[in-house]
Amino acid sequence: MAGWFDANLVSILNGFAIGSLLFILAVGLSIVFGMMDVLNLAHGAFFLVGSYLAVSFVAGVSWGGFLAALAVAALFGLLAGGVLSGMTEPLARRPILDQALLTLGISLIVAEVLSIIYGNNVRSVPGPPGLDGSVQVAGSTYPTYRLMLIAVGLLLALVVWLVVERTSIGALVRASVADREMVSAMGIDNRKVKFAVLGIGSMLAAVAGVLGAPVYGARPGLDKTILILALVVVVIGGLGSVRGALIGALVIGQVESLGRALLPELASFILFGTLALVLIIRPRGLFAGKVAHS
Amino acid sequence: MSMAQGSSRRNGTRLGVGLLALTLTAACGGGGSLGGDEGGGEGGGEAGGTVTVGLVIPQAGVYTPLGEDMQQGWDLYLDQHDGQLGGYEVETVVADEGESPDTGVPAVQRLLTEGEVDALVGIVNSATALGVAEQVAEAQIPLIVANAGAEAVTKDAGNPYVWRTSFTNAQVAAAMGEHLAAEGVGPVYVMAPDYAAGQEVVAGFTEAYEAAGGTVAGQTLTPFGSTQDFQPFLSNVQSSGAEAVFVFYAGGEAVSFVQQYDAFGLKDSTPLYGSGFLTEGSVLDAQGESAVGVRTSLHYSTEIDNPANTEFVAAYQEAYGELPTTYAVQAYDAANVLDSALEGVEEVSGQAIAEALETVGEIDDSPRGPWTFNGQTPEQTMYLREVAEVDGTLRNTVVTDLGVFAQP
Hints:
The complex is a heterodimer of chains A (about 290) and B (about 400).
Chain A: H1 2-36, H2 43-56, H3 63-88, H4 96-118, E1 134-137, E2 140-143, H5 144-166, H6 168-178, H7 180-185, H8 190-216, H9 222-237, H10 242-262, H11 267-281
Antiparallel strand pairs in A: 1-2
Helix pairs in contact in A: 1-5, 1-8, 1-9, 1-10, 2-3, 2-4, 2-8, 2-9, 3-8, 5-6, 9-10, 10-11
Chain B: H1 2-27, H2 31-40, E1 50-57, H3 64-80, E2 84-85, E3 88-96, H4 101-114, E4 119-122, H5 126-139, E5 143-145, E6 162-164, H6 169-183, E7 188-193, H7 196-211, E8 216-222, H8 231-239, E9 244-247, H9 251-263, H10 266-269, E10 272-275, H11 282-287, E11 295-298, H12 307-320, H13 326-343, H14 350-357, E12 372-374, E13 377-390, E14 393-405
Parallel strand pairs in B: 1-3, 1-4, 4-5, 5-6, 7-8, 7-9, 9-10, 10-11
Antiparallel strand pairs in B: 2-3, 11-13, 12-13, 13-14
Helix pairs in contact in B: 1-4, 3-13, 4-5, 6-7, 13-14
């Protein structure tokens, strides 16, 4: 057993790194869909905007560039989420598919604009100074940047959980999910709540794009791949639950890393196999929010 | 799903337009084809007829950079030859191949049904090439495939109208297989994406390598299009006891693979070899330092030392401000082949061009070095290339040539 653990330690570690990145990516999608009933299919496109911002600010050359890319991405995400909130408002009483079509359309437009600005070549982004190398972990070489991703992911998980569960803003968000009419009867405009939640959710997507750039690079089509991964995480974890998004992301991180290392011949099947298994056992996800979307 | 519906509707429209055009042509008593006869009818190069060539290249989707290179290679040849091939004025009609047969096959169909083209050049995707092989034969319009590397294009699905100026997947891999066996590098681990081209490369490499006495340490076919992170597969390479690794990746996967191969420390312990597409074109810039020292086999490199290549590279750099790629050379050579074929054509028709292609013989002024058609696909020199920094940019330097290889 100990031998097995040693042999696969790097894969397990890598599972945590990928899981952390997936959490930052998916938690926004999960909160927005689970709490605000908006299925934001432009989430992957916002991620890609973040990745290309990392390319623009040549994030790897200096910490200044990397932090600037993060700041601009966060600002972009907030604004984009706000705009999206306004655009989905007229569709709020229509079936969820209408919103999905709107956001899908937006994601296609964003992807096309990115391809016009940045061209179609694959771009890569080095990690910031000090994190662009590799270190020895249990006798194997491992990229330093990915170790930092684990720390950032867990930190963000803690912050988001505290905000949603332990602050009055979080309480307001949870209340407007549970009973929208009652919240507005108390004099609170729940459009503002939706505006804020979508803004922060989209901000997390764009920030994840910058953080993911040194791992995934930036290229046309990455938005779709990322969106599918995020949707799988959300479905496995359960909608509208921070804890669910974290567990879902960590599970998928391990499936994509350790699972593929142990069963390389099943590599293309194992992700959706896990998804199917979870859907059979817990159709609403492992940790569905208290008020799940039906 | 909605995207698929969108594209099929668009395809439907294209087909509809094509049919309408066909009906109109018929109604005018074949006016279109009469015009065509008038164009090339006077025969011979000196009369100054025209030939219309459909250039089918990706203008959207992941293969767009390849399409741009092919367009530039094609344009450069025409610019250098006063816009003429074999004495005929060339009119190029560009069609968007897109990413898959869903878009590529209708693009070709449209060119065929409109009845305007005398020959077709292009096609990046093998599935698209296989999808249109029968149709070009029915329409009697020759197709010169300028990239797609599936063996079947000029073998099982081949016909007298389908020609190729590029390579076959197994041809490129077999050259490296023989070389590594001769070098005695020790057990080799083989990796490629799990789709038709990847499988052909793995099979072609393994067959040639084992036939020459090499041993394979293991192989993995990674999920195509959904593998962002190669760590799980790389950890299996490390535990397999492999002394070298041979891979085939292209585009985004090539960038991720080469960078992660370095980041996870394999580059220092286990030399990386590959099919040339691993380090070809724009991916090399994105790979950066990680790619230095990677050795690949391919039928072209900008660093090949022959007068035709020196001249080609200089002209290409002057025209486009960047180094040419193998994709550009393949389109450039497609124009070259058509040039030779049209020399002997009295009256332009698809059938006449296809017949003339049989007699082209050796292409002796190609940037890749002299090559000939063998089974309608190039029998050509394969080069062993190594990535190194030259004049501040990364290039595929030529280590040696690996000999002349035909389609296996």
